[in-house]
TrEMBL record:
Region (Disordered): 1-63
Source taxon at top rank: Bacteria
UniProt organism field: Acrocarpospora macrocephala
Basic and acidic residues bias: start-end ranges: 1-10, 18-32
Residue ranges with Low complexity bias: 47-61
Name assigned to this protein: Uncharacterized protein
Length: 694
């Protein structure tokens, strides 16, 4: 679009195109009834909604029974008498194969072995774990079983020291698992003398609230990853267990940092594939919850959804940090050298990744179903029935309390000059991560409009109102703006996305917006019906006027709302952090290379374009957020984001940037998993679209 002017003889230019809108915050998204929380970014580790059910304590009685012990001992005397006698008196001469079989037994039964020499095996396993011997990784469940094995029967000094080795080198998540299964009272009872005093001192230092808190089962470790924790070669099967809801992502990031660069790359590739799979499961579960036959079933599905969503968020936090580290560690030349040339198969997969997957039979995508078997309502009928509620939902969120009287009250608004300061911080933080891939001098800080001076940072409400109320603005222009918004809803709204999934609809439009297949024809028809009357158009125009933010990459302009939220200081602090995140997102839009934007525009309005523009921008703004997230309570950053007055107040729980993540983020990350992170960065910032199948 062209930059708006305010000449009296013609109308101001219309708002920014639909492809660069900022999505509503996720907690306000319309989801199927009972679909569960839309924002899990503030749920702490160990929250009741996400915490694993308390595990059954590991076996505390004798080692499998007297008869089993005697039988095993006598059998050993007959088959290998020397080894048996040595092990009876504490010898640990086991092969790796014998110990691997022992661990397999523990994993399979979830219980101790309870044999006459099982404590010897447990100590031998701990020794190999301390030495980071491949194959002897110990998740918390194994640690708890080994400790129970060592506590069964008489617990000698060697047993006590092995238990302390496990405890003092265990990470936070594993400690949570251990103390679910091994009562602290049992540890204190069975470990005495100097080792007991060492245990008590360690508990006091390692946990919030010390020993009294742990006695109350308030197990909250502090201090992060212990320096003596063993470092094992990367193994996906072990690494994925860290995302159990008990390991904070910060700790997983610490563990990743200890691996080699090649291992971190492998972990990132594995994680992005796993998250893609998890996104599909979450979508399916959300639909099941919405269609649940009763409240009890819905509640159970919501609990599953909450746990999976928390797991997905943790994976996102770890992934965005991994990509941030790759970006910061490599020079542009190193970065480009590691990009890959796509095979024909990868190019085809990259194109397919831009839209949600459809079922495949015999290697061929299952075609669009206008009407599903056993139903009489067509896709078009359902879309027509659903869209009024979609429009109403957006109007209630974006327009209801953003009317002329609201905008006319200075007490209800922030100022553009405040947003200019915030925009500079957003630019600086983004440049710190990605400026190696563009010339930041060509992207100057955003400047707020001033009376009589048009700049690059605008009041979106005021600009849209000027366009809508200008005498030269025709109804046809207002209607075109309204229809573009409806087409945007089609590609960004969950309700329509679910309808598309059920009917295997992949609407395709020409660059000019003309429908190219049956699904697009249906969408275009309903869009025209929704923009027929003046009342319909006005309602959609008011949503556009109240939209949170947008950007125009061609002119490097950004448009945003200035409305203060209700709810007092804490709500306004949250608004400013949200606007900070939003301005990162919008600034990233202005950094997209012209060739990249033109490639996206070839697909016309629809899902593929939304993936390349909004989904990819969401992906990138979360990579920037990885550098900010650990610093949200830093006083200096708080003053820049919240201002001096609010920064003097207690800090709020700042939510993750995923709060406004576009649903097409899933397709964007699928594209990354196919072509590679570096290819995506070179395409987005340098226009090398061949790197993503262009």
């Amino acid at each position: 679009m062209t930059e708006r002017t305010f000449e009296t003889e013609r109308a101001p230019a219309p708002p920014a195109p639909e492809a660069e809108r900022r999505p509503p915050a996720r907690e306000a998204e319309r989801r199927p009834p009972g679909a569960g929380p839309g924002d899990l970014t503030r749920i702490p580790v160990g929250s009741p909604a996400l915490r694993s059910a308390p595990a059954k304590p590991a076996a505390a009685s004798g080692r499998g029974g007297f008869l089993q012990t005697v039988s095993s001992f006598l059998g050993g005397l007959f088959t290998h008498p020397i080894d048996t006698l040595r092990r009876l008196f504490g010898g640990e001469g086991y092969t790796d194969r014998e110990l691997a079989d022992y661990l397999t037994l523990l994993d399979r039964t979830g219980d101790i072995e309870g044999d006459f020499d099982s404590d010897n095996k447990a100590r031998a396993v701990v020794a190999r774990w301390k030495g980071a011997r491949a194959g002897f990784e110990l998740p918390g469940t194994r640690m708890a079983l080994l400790m129970s094995e060592l506590l069964a029967g008489a617990t000698g000094g060697d047993d006590e020291r092995a238990i302390l080795d496990l405890l003092t080198r265990a990470d936070d998540g594993d400690l949570r698992v251990i103390f679910q299964r091994v009562p602290v009272a049992r540890l204190l009872k069975d470990i005495g003398g100097a080792n007991g005093r060492r245990l008590t001192a360690w508990i006091e230092a390692r946990f919030e609230g010390g020993l009294p808190a742990v006695r109350r089962n308030a197990v909250e470790p502090k201090g992060g990853l212990p320096p003596g924790a063993p470092v094992f070669p990367y193994d996906w099967a072990h690494f994925r267990q860290k995302f159990d809801g008990l390991h904070p992502p910060e700790q997983i990031i610490q563990e990743l940092a200890r691996l080699t660069p090649d291992e971190r790359e492998r972990a990132a590739r594995d994680l992005i594939v796993e998250r893609d799979t998890l996104d599909t499961k979450i979508d399916d579960l959300r639909v099941k919850a919405g269609n649940a036959p009763d409240q009890a079933t819905r509640a159970a599905l919501q609990d599953q959804l909450a746990a999976l969503s928390k797991r997905e968020l943790d994976m996102s936090i770890v992934l965005e940090d991994a990509f941030k580290e790759i970006t910061l560690a490599e020079t542009p030349a190193q970065f480009a050298a590691k990009a890959v040339a796509l095979t024909p198969a990868q190019r085809a997969q990259a194109r397919q990744a831009l839209v949600p997957p459809v079922p495949v039979m015999g290697g061929v995508p299952v075609p669009f179903a206008k009407t599903l078997p056993g139903e009489h309502l067509s896709y078009e009928d359902k879309l027509r029935a659903a869209m009024p509620a979609v429009v109403d939902g957006y109007w209630n969120q974006m327009a209801k309390e953003r009317q002329p009287a609201d905008h006319g009250d200075p007490a209800k608004l922030h100022t553009l000059s405040e947003m200019e300061d915030l925009a500079k911080v957003s630019k600086d933080e983004t440049d710190e991560v990605f400026a190696g891939h563009y010339d930041k001098a060509l992207h100057p800080p955003l400047k707020a409009d001033r009376p009589g001076r048009r700049a690059s940072l605008h009041d979106l409400w005021a600009d849209t109102q000027a366009f809508l109320t200008h005498p030269a603005t025709s109804f046809a222009e207002k209607r075109a703006l309204a229809k573009a918004l409806v087409l945007y809803f089609y590609s960004a709204d969950d309700t329509v996305g679910e309808l598309n999934r059920k009917h295997r609809a992949v609407p395709s439009f020409s660059p000019a917006g003309g429908p190219l297949n049956d699904a697009a024809v249906a969408q275009d028809k309903v869009a025209r019906e929704l923009t027929t009357t003046a009342a319909q158009v006005r309602r959609l125009n008011e949503i556009d006027r109240g939209w949170d933010a947008s950007a125009n990459p061609a002119t490097q302009d950004v448009n945003l709302q200035l409305f203060r939220p209700k709810g007092g200081v804490a709500a306004d602090q949250d608004f400013l952090w949200d606007m900070f995140q939003t301005l990162i997102h919008e600034y990233l839009h202005t950094l997209a290379h012209g060739d990249y934007r033109r490639f996206a525009e070839r697909f016309g309005p629809g899902q593929a374009q939304n993936t390349l523009i909004e989904g990819m921008d969401s992906f990138l703004d979360e990579v920037v957020w990885a550098r900010i997230r650990p610093r949200v309570n830093d006083p200096g950053l708080r003053r820049k984001v919240e201002g001096p007055a609010y920064a003097a107040q207690p800090p709020i729980a700042v939510r993750h940037a995923s709060r406004r993540r576009y649903s097409s983020f899933a397709e964007a990350t699928r594209l990354v998993s196919i072509v590679g992170y570096r290819n995506v960065i070179l395409a987005y910032f340098k226009g090398e679209i061949d790197k993503i199948g262009g």
